[in-house]
Amino acid sequence: MSSTFSLDKLPSFKPDVNSEFETDKDTRRKAKFCPIRIDLKFVAAILVLLGVAAAFVIYPVISAQKSVQDVIGYDTGNDEETLKKIALKESSKGQPLVPNPLPIDPDTPESGKTFTASTGEVWKLVFSDEFNKDGRSFEPGKDKVWVSQDYFYWPTNDLEYYSPKNVKTSKGSLVLTMEEKSTDGGHNFTSGMVSSWNKFCFQGGYIEVNVSFPGNGRVSGYWPAVWTLGNLGRAGYGATTDGLWPYTYNSCDEGVLPNQTISDPTKCLLRGQRLNACVCSGDHPSPGIGRGAPEIDIFEGSINGDELPNLSMSNQWAPFNFEYKNYNEGTLVFDRGYNVSGKSVMNDYTGNAYQQCASGLYFYDRSIVEGKKYQTFGFEYEPGPDGYIQWYSNRKPIWKLTTAAMGPNAASKIARRVISEEPMVRSLLDV
Questions:
Q1: What's an example GO BP annotation here (predicted)?
Q2: What is the pTM of this model?
Q3: How far is it, in rounded angstroms, from Cα 137 to Cα 367?
């Protein structure tokens, strides 16, 4: 048994000698010393230890101070070129200040090279991948943008194991195949996932995919998803997301503390914002600014009984409002309707002990499956405290979220959350 999820394109030492020391008015020094006995072997041992300490402590401190002085020695002012020189000199990895541009696939049609935003602005394409070449490999080191994952995705307690063998390109599409096939880890299913973590990320703009869903549109259990995550977190690696996901918060208050100091800790199981705005200079790279790994989903798919399959198009964040309640004035559904193909409603689910979210449910036709038909989905967003996210199908707006839905919450003693300002990574997976 197998099913496929196809993606057609993307666009300080003080000695104690027991002495008294004083200086008289004539600056003559008078001292009274108590007799002491010295064990030369003990002194030798102490000298050896001090020598070791000098090698491992004093020298690194001197080296670090010299390095800092080298940086401080620049008269930076507002000289942008000087700042660039500092960055180039002090970068341990030697990374370019401006990354090389990613390719635009030559197979991308002219119609896909621009997008008219909700603001009326015309945006130009900066990256695309049509997946038209069959037999591409996405194993580590094989592709400039995509990496197929090889692990069990434990954070959501998945039933399947992700294997690079279940990722391929065929007939002009990226194909992720799910099989009822057990693995060494004892999982009964195997599937595929690709990610652009640390290779390709973006801050603001429009992103879209052209997809065909797994199954026949009537069987539940699949969880096809195309989603983005702040690049500080790496999907599936819990140590990287703990204390980062899904924070998008720039304030210093109870919202950054473990459990948000809520009397009932089961209401928030997050252990606090690790890189928060309360820290001092040197604690992390962005003092005074909260950092995190928020999540914006193009979609996560599901099927409920006899209803049409639906897609949850969501933004997820922390800290949380009291009882995870959103503010309705920050949401807008453009074509409202329940269980009607092409129409949408707001999702009643607004969060749990790990996240608060706002989600629109979009219903799609059962024919968009197994590569028979494809449909385009995406979102446009503007980062920041005055930002927004707007989701699309075939470039027709579905629903919109603004920061009015994420405003201050007196009951939880927290300030406004923001639309993600983090560089966002694209991940694709099939469940």
A1: (1->6)-beta-D-glucan biosynthetic process
A2: 0.79
A3: 29
